[in-house]
Write a structure and sequence with these properties.
alpha/beta, 8 helices, 8-stranded mixed beta sheet, 7-stranded mixed beta sheet
Length: about 325
């Protein structure tokens, strides 16, 4: 039976961030990914400027936008920045770049699905049993590690999208409460494709969301042709991230934004913070504490203020420029 200092379940941005830092500090780390390739994920691919504070190269971006458009209550508003506000990025490209940044002491295994967890052990689908000192759940919104910890997931975004080739110049979001509740629809142009989708809270019936989204596509004259419908949840139901020798990071912890659904920034940040805690038991998570304050404010805005704010151009510009 193998034994590692740290076992990481999931090789998304959060898991890759943990692995990079711990590998550089001589920890024996095992990174497990259930899929056959690291990086690809169903995702709209929006990345705000704050994510680049982690030294991601800007040339990873498909498209860079110094402005974007918000459509609400029959009017269009353009949010402009002095520098770029948001980019679109290919998730496979991001994952492969982060993978190459891992230089030392990390064993990376693809096609390695964890199916069961017990105290200090994980069990893989192929029958392996692996012992750990620390376990990190970086396995997304449907996290097995989170389920092992018996944490509820009641607050989540439901999303559906198509990837199409129709040409769009601008990045746009559309707030239509009758169709998408507290969520929104989006048009996110990439290099060779466009992500067109919608997001709403999980209280919305899936069938209604499907019908409403297709009504909106027809109204917008967006052609989906033979594009495949994709769906993915975004968990923002936070109930803690440290549980003895087990940690949750990224969407597994519910760190995604309850206002926008953005999760990549929080995934990378929380991965880095947990790595520092494993290296230094006295580390007190300043980055996560700041993230949680911002997350709390975003959720209060999302629950009670987003639609009144959208009726004021000045307030809309302030909120979105301040919190992207």
């Amino acid at each position: 039976m193998e034994k590692f200092d740290v076992v990481i379940v999931g090789a998304g941005p959060a898991g890759l961030s943990v692995a990079k830092i711990l590998g550089e500090e001589e920890k024996r780390v095992l990174l497990l990914e259930k899929n056959s390739r690291i990086g690809p994920k169903i995702c709209a691919g929006g990345l705000t400027q704050r994510s680049f504070q982690f030294r991601l190269p800007l040339n990873l971006a498909d498209r860079i936008f110094n402005s974007f458009k918000i459509n609400a209550f029959g009017k269009e508003m353009e949010i402009k920045g002095k520098r770029f506000l948001i980019t679109t990025i290919n998730r496979e490209k991001l994952g492969q770049w982060m993978l190459k940044e891992i230089k030392k002491n990390v064993q990376i295994r693809i096609n390695s699905e964890v199916i069961e967890i017990e105290r200090d052990y994980v069990f893989l689908k192929d029958g392996q049993k692996i012992k750990f000192d620390f376990l990190i759940g970086a396995d997304g919104s449907l996290s097995l590690v989170r389920k092992y910890l018996n944490l509820p997931t009641k607050k989540a975004w439901s999303t559906i999208q198509y990837t199409i080739t129709q040409d769009f110049k601008d990045l746009e979001v559309f707030f239509e409460p009758a169709l998408f509740g507290s969520g929104y629809a989006w048009i996110f142009p990439h290099n060779n494709f466009v992500s067109v989708g919608c997001v709403t809270d999980s209280k919305f019936q899936t069938l209604n969301l499907f019908k409403n989204f297709h009504y909106w596509l027809k109204k917008m004259k967006i052609e989906i042709n033979q594009a495949e419908l994709e769906s993915f949840p975004i968990n923002f139901d936070y109930h803690g991230f440290k549980f003895g020798n087990i940690f949750l990071v990224g969407d597994a912890a519910g760190f995604a934004s309850g206002l926008t659904g953005e999760g990549i920034y929080a995934a990378i940040l929380s991965g880095r913070e947990v790595a520092q805690k494993i290296l230094n038991p006295n580390y007190n998570f300043p980055g996560i504490r700041k993230l949680l304050k911002k997350k709390s404010l975003e959720e209060r805005i999302g629950k009670t203020l987003i639609f009144p704010i959208l009726k004021s151009k000045k307030l809309t510009q302030f909120i979105f420029k301040r919190y992207l």
